[in-house]
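Q: I have 233 residues here and want to know how they pack in 3D. Can you give me a structure?
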Amino acid sequence: MSLDLALRLTEILLGLAFLQQSLEHLHAPKDEQRLFFPRIVLSVLLLLGFYTQWVCLGLVLLGLFILKRFQGPYNGGSDRMSLLILCCVSLVHFMPALRWQEYVFGYLALQLALSYFISGWVKIVNPEWRSGRALQDVFCFSAYPVSESLRGWADRPRLLLLMSWAVMLFELLFPFTLLTQTTLIIGLVIAAIFHFGNALLFGLNRFFWIWLAAYPSILWLQHRIFDAGQIWN
């Protein structure tokens, strides 16, 4: 995958993610609408590839105003990943040389891999995750829109223990998927299914779309590393 193709795919997925996030604010107070309506317009322009570098810069500036309005990333990890991808894409457009563009885009890919690894590390050092208790609490007491039938999973400790370890091990081992293109594609499919499941079970739909937006960068990086290895051989 070429850098240009990976970058364009990232822009399209980022535009879709921003549209989904911004549409939630159309019936919000007026001060929010003033921030998110322009974001919708810029997101559509990003999808169309219209003056992309300036659209990205506009989205960065607008993102700073949104941070000020909510006194930080009010949706936590999804907002931080949104800004990370947006800033990296913007920097790629303004870098003066291809080498620096690759450095910035490669940084985004590494941050994606680390996001899974660090999440797994934080979980595995927590005894409540290792025992499955953390997932029990999620289904028992979470304010997320879990249906009553799914809350019954809290009474199945063995299942939740297995699920806990499956999530932790996958996240910790994710960086190793970079070893081959096949393992990376399999890893990304599993990760996408994981995010999609969280969106269905807990309403964490923002994580699904924005993490997908970073996937082209890691596909490009794996391809770039493989090509570099062939040159040295």
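Q: Anything worth noting?
A: The chain has one domain: 3-232. The radius of gyration is 19 Å.
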